Amino acid sequence: MGLWTPLVYLGLVLLIHSLISAVQFISTHGPISLPADIAFECIIGCLISAFSYVKMTAEGEWKQISIAKAYSNLTWGRVENRPSFAHFNHRAKSIFSDKAPNNNRK
Amino acid sequence: MLGEQPQASSDNVYAQDKIAHNENIIYKCRAFGAVVFGILAGVFGLTSLWGLLVYVISSIVISIFLFATLPKLSIDGLFTSWMSILTGGFVQGAMTYVLVWTLAYDIVYIFF
């Protein structure tokens, strides 16, 4: 799971909690400025969740866009591989296996 | 021009699927940033240009976070220009931001 996924959830929990706290505060006191603790919790939750999500999504996921570097380790087998060319009952296994009942080699 | 031979150079030949992969990462991060900053703007009760300012700030913050994840803090080989990181997904993120901002503001200041 890594470190960043729990931090994303933690940030979202802080954000939602600040939202609910703001609803309760505004419903009792009217549309006035929010107290510092709710504002601080909202900002911290926002920054934690945003930073953790970027780290979780982008860290180590960037790919080289130059064709020479992007496909430098592409083998011929990977290039010509396609679903219609896959063999699931290749007879070489039974022909050249010593344990096969229909082995023709004596 | 007719008759001209195309210049053979591997320096400017890019893999489109890799470019799309990198831009998709930027788009997802900017969309998530739009959601969380939209909630923040709604909780704080921001309206009109203040909300737009918060979205611009969120876009800059997400760009800084994305820059911090780059290997060797450089775009060499990953993007064709800096504009991809700075403005990638800006309009789509703005739509998400306005949606969440409006919803959060209504929840806090109007519905209850």
Question: How would you describe this structure to a colleague?
Answer:
Chain A: Pfam families: MMgT. Chain A: Belongs to the membrane magnesium transporter (TC 1.A.67) family. The complex is a heterodimer of chains A (106) and B (112). Chain A has 106 residues and is an all-alpha fold. Chain A has a domain at 4-57. Chain A contains 5 helices and no strands. The two termini of chain A are 55 Å apart. Chain B contains 4 helices and no strands. Chain B has helices spanning 16-43, 48-68, 83-87, 90-111. In chain B, 32% of the residues are buried. Classes of the chains: A mainly alpha (106), B mainly alpha (112). Chain A binds chain B through residues 11-12, 15-16, 18-19, 22-23, 26-27, 31, 34, 38-39, 42-43, 45-47, 49-51, 53-55, 57-59, 61-71, and chain B through 10-11, 13-15, 18-19, 21-22, 25, 28-29, 32-33, 36-37, 39-40, 42-45, 58, 61-62, 65-66, 68-71, 77-80, 104, 107-109, 112.
Describe the SSE topology.
The complex is a heterodimer of chains A (106) and B (112).
Chain A: H1 4-29, H2 36-58, H3 67-70, H4 76-79, H5 92-95
Chain B: H1 16-43, H2 48-68, H3 83-87, H4 90-111
Helix pairs in contact in B: 1-2, 1-4
Structure characteristics:
heterodimer, A: 106 residues, mainly alpha, 5 helices, B: 112 residues, 4 helices, elongated, endoplasmic reticulum (chain B), Emc6 (chain B), transmembrane helix (chain B)
Count of separate structural domains of chain B: 1
How many beta-strand elements of chain A? Answer: 0
The main sheet of chain B comes to: none
Compute the CA-based radius of gyration of chain A. 30 Å
Please trace the helix and strand order of chain B, writing H or E for each element: HHHH
